[in-house]
Amino acid sequence: MEADKSMKTPHETDRSDKMRFEAQIEQPQFERHRRSWATLKWFENTPKTEEAFYLRLQELPDEDATFLKSFYHVTEDWDLFKLICKFWNIGISGRMKNAECRT
User: Fold this and answer.
1) Which of 37, 51, 45, 29 is nearest to 87 (CA)?
2) Distances (CA, A) of 71 to 1, 83, 92
3) What are the extents of the domains in the chain?
4) For residue 96, what is the DSSP state?
5) DSSP assignment string, 66-78
6) Across the chain, how many H-helices and E-strands are there?
7) What are phi and psi of 93, to 5 degrees?
8) In this predicted model, what pLDDT tens digit does every residue of 25-48 receive, in sequence order?
9) pTM for this prediction
10) Beta-carbon neighbour count of residue 7 at 10 Å?
11) Could you report the per-residue pLDDT of 46-79, keeping only the tens digit for each?
12) Which one, out of 6, 28, 55, 76, has a CA that is 20 to 30 A from the CA of 82?
């Protein structure tokens, strides 16, 4: 019976797991994932058309565009645009490829 007392209660285990999870969240890789999600979420209320997403991308702050390119290992604006559209399930016709990209 004495050995049973040393075992963690479910409450203690949950608390320990929570503390461990919180410690992981503070690591840079998790911060990068959070930022990626927040930046992609910026497109959430954009009308679901290729043109609307293209215009919204033009409004994305340079710092956020650079971050997403780095995070997803793409170098070109067009590749970033395709990635964002794919994430939001927006069909790409290619019409926007010849439009002037971000300045």
Assistant:
1) 37
2) 53, 12, 22
3) 9-98
4) G
5) HHHHHHHT--SHH
6) 6, 0
7) -95, -20
8) 556 788 889 999 999 999 999 999
9) 0.66
10) 8
11) 999 999 999 999 999 999 999 999 999 999 999 9
12) 28
